Amino acid sequence: MARMSNKVALIVGGAKGIGLAIAERLSAEGAKIFITSRRSEDAEKAASRIGNEAVGIAADASAPEDMVKAVESVRAAYGRVDALVLNAGLSEPADIFDITPDHFYRHFDVNVRGMVFGLQAALPAMTNGGSVVLVGSIADSAGYATYGTYAATKAAVRSYARTWTAELAPKGIRVNVVAPGPTDTEMMAAVPEDMRAALVSPIPMGRMARPSEVAAAALFLLSEEASYIAGAELCVDGGLGQV
C-alpha cells in the first residue's frame, strides 16, 4: 500500500525546489496534495505538473491571514490536514557589516514567522495522528560567513520543533525537521560554477543532494514508519555537518 494513501497534505512553499519535490513524492505515495506559493501562476503550474488533482493556492507564507485561507481551502475539500510541510524560505547573503533592518525582518518574516503562523493556522484542521515537517537547514548549527541571518532563522526553526513537540505530542501530532545541506535546485543552478564547487568540496559524498533525496526524508518523517519519531532533526547533507 502507498505510504500516504488517503492522507491530505498541505505543502507551504511547494511550487519549486525542495517543496515541489516533496509534493510530488507525497502525491506518488497516494496523498491528496495542496501546495501554496506567493505567485498564483507558480502554484497553478506546479499543481498541473504534480497532477492527481493537486491544488495550487496563492498564499504569502509570511501573512497569517493567507495561511488561514489556505487551510480553509483544504478543509472545504477534505475536512482535515493529515500532513503539513512548512517549506517557504528566504536566503540572501549579508555579513554583519551590511545587514539592514529590511534584510533581517524579511528573513524572519518568511522563515520563522511564516512557520509559526502556518502551523497555528493548520492546527484546528489536524487530528490525532497528524504529522508536521519543518524544512530547516544544516546551517542551524554552523557558521557560514554572510549567511548569519539565514542560519539564525533555521536555528529558531530547530528550537521551535522541540517546543512544538512538547506541546503537540500529547494531542497525537508529531513535529520533526528535515535539514538539507547544499541541494541541486533551480536556485542553486544559477550559482556560479566556482561557488558551487566550493560548496561541494567539503561534502564527504562529493556532491550536492538531489531534491528527491530530501523529499524521501520528508516522506519518511510524515509517514507511519516514523510513528515514534518526534522533535528530531534528520540531516540530508551527504555527511557535511556530521564529520
Please write out the topology.
Elements: E1 8-12, H1 17-28, E2 32-37, H2 40-50, E3 55-58, H3 64-78, E4 83-86, H4 101-122, E5 131-135, H5 148-168, E6 174-180, H6 186-189, H7 193-200, H8 211-222, E7 233-236
Parallel strand pairs: 1-2, 1-4, 2-3, 4-5, 5-6, 6-7
EC number: 1.-.-.-
Pfam family, one: adh_short_C2
GO molecular function, one term: oxidoreductase activity
Give structural attributes:
7 strands; 43% helix; Rossmann fold; globular; 243 residues; 7-stranded parallel β-sheet; alpha/beta
Brief write-up:
43% of the residues lie in helices and 14% in strands. It is of the alpha/beta class.
Return residue spans where pLDDT drops below 50 for at least 5 consecutive residues.
none
Helix % is: 40-55%
Instruction: Please state the average pLDDT score.
Output: 95
CATH topology: Rossmann fold
Structural shape: globular
CATH superfamily: NAD(P)-binding Rossmann-like Domain
**SS field, number of helical segments:** 8
What is the highest CATH level, the class? Alpha Beta
Domains, number: 1
- Strand order of the biggest β-sheet: 3-2-1-4-5-6-7
Q: Provide the structure class.
A: alpha/beta
The total strand number stands at 7
Order of helices and strands: EHEHEHEHEHEHHHE
Q: From the coordinates shown, what is the CATH architecture?
A: 3-Layer(aba) Sandwich
Relative strand content: 5-15%
Family: Belongs to the short-chain dehydrogenases/reductases (SDR) family.
Domain Ketoreductase: 7-181
Keywords: Oxidoreductase
Organism: Rhizobium oryzicola
